[in-house]
Amino acid sequence: MNSLGLLLALALSSSPTPVVRVEVHASSQGLEGVAVGPDGKVLRPPGPSKISDLVITCEPHRCVSGDREVPIGLVEALRTAVSQPAKERITLDNLGVGEDWLRRVIARERSRFEYAKPTPQDAFLGVYGTRLQDCAPRADVMLGMLASYYDPQNWWTDDYPRVTASITISSGSSVQLSSDSQKEFMLPWKVGVGGESRTTYDARVSRALTALLPPQFLERERIAAERLEEWYLQQFRYNSPAVCGNGKRTP
Questions:
Q1: Which long-range contacts (CB under 8 A, 24 or more apart) does 27-32 make?
Q2: Which of 27, 48, 204, 213 could form a cystine bridge with 81, CB 3.0-4.6 A?
Q3: What's the confidence (pLDDT) of residue 122?
């Protein structure tokens, strides 16, 4: 069963939950409004520019957030996801990325391309389109590009998100979840249980957390990886691996 199917199945479950409280806090800051002296040194660092908070309280058979009812199955899906063994690296299957996914992305890109440039349909089959269709769907290419993207050494300025979550169990124990990753799905996550912590590249955590967040919750779009397709297309167009022509020639 895929991740979406699992979430739906859990959401329909009537089983009781041991979770009594879920708290999620998100903040984001950039370099807006920073005071800089004549020598270029920062005189006043930026404070949080945006903040979102979510609190869900649960009884064994009912969870609510304010006046909104939250399906118990979705709360259980998050508890289950953070309980899994850590994933030390990304995998295409866990990210939900594969040839079928990319073929759908390419079809949408072709439609967008042809709408923006109303020329004969085969115009898309230029250097970029040919590389995209013939080389981008290769598993080794996708994994290589995504591994480079999720490399901790790959980061950028003017973008400082942070998301933390706490899951409190009826026994009194709790699970702490946090990430300040700039990447889609906000991978990796740090999971803390009983004074011990682990780091995981498990997108199931991101999907389960996304399902609990209101539509306008800060960083929800990033946690849900809504721009992963856009990132992949842009990177492939301008910085594809040499095996695909590297933007200079067809494969």
A1: 27/51, 27/52, 27/161, 27/162, 27/218, 28/160, 28/161, 28/162, 28/218, 28/219, 29/160, 30/158, 30/159, 30/160, 31/157, 31/158
A2: 204
A3: 57
